[in-house]
Amino acid sequence: SSPSAAQTTSLNTWITWSPALPFSLGEVVSALVDNKLYVMGQGNGATCMRPLTAGSVWTCTLAKRPFEGNHHTAVVPGDGTFWIVAGLGFNQTSTLANGKMQMYSPATNTWTVVNMPTGFGGSLSAVVVNQRIYFCGGILNGATTNMCASYSLTSKTFSAMPSMPFGVNHAAFATDGVDCFFVVGGRTGGNVPSQGFDYLQVYTIS
Hints:
Distance between the termini: 37 Å
Low-confidence stretches: none
Order of helices and strands: HEEEEEEEEEEEEEEEEE
């Protein structure tokens, strides 16, 4: 079921899904796994979850991600887990969230941390294709990178790949799930509002 099916009989319309989150969040990242919505964000380190069923409520007592930060990117590989890829900022122990991939397993309520190759920060683009996470661009040390790499969920190893023609952060990203992915628009520089670009960058997977 879905929020609209559970709480309204009208289709093709918006609803405000209540109850709302128990606290305000900025720079939010979310993942939908097994009909449950997981939400995390800047301003609170909690991992919140709500089933997509009528009468459900939020649970925010799940295990916290080890590296809180903000400006994460989430990917859902379809194996019952989700990944938080990189990020900006610090957590309460002043440990950088960039350069980390954090995998959450709802089945065990545990996080697993994988160290990424040097050069990857927050606001990057990431997709999953054929059990491999591809990630590109983003912000590191106040500057935008055009670097890309991938991580195999089966062999648990990283692989190098060509850099994007244009380094961008805060870009949109999409994949056909088969043999290509897109990085659309974006901006450059550090984590400050700036003029965006009209780039449409496409990577064909070999």
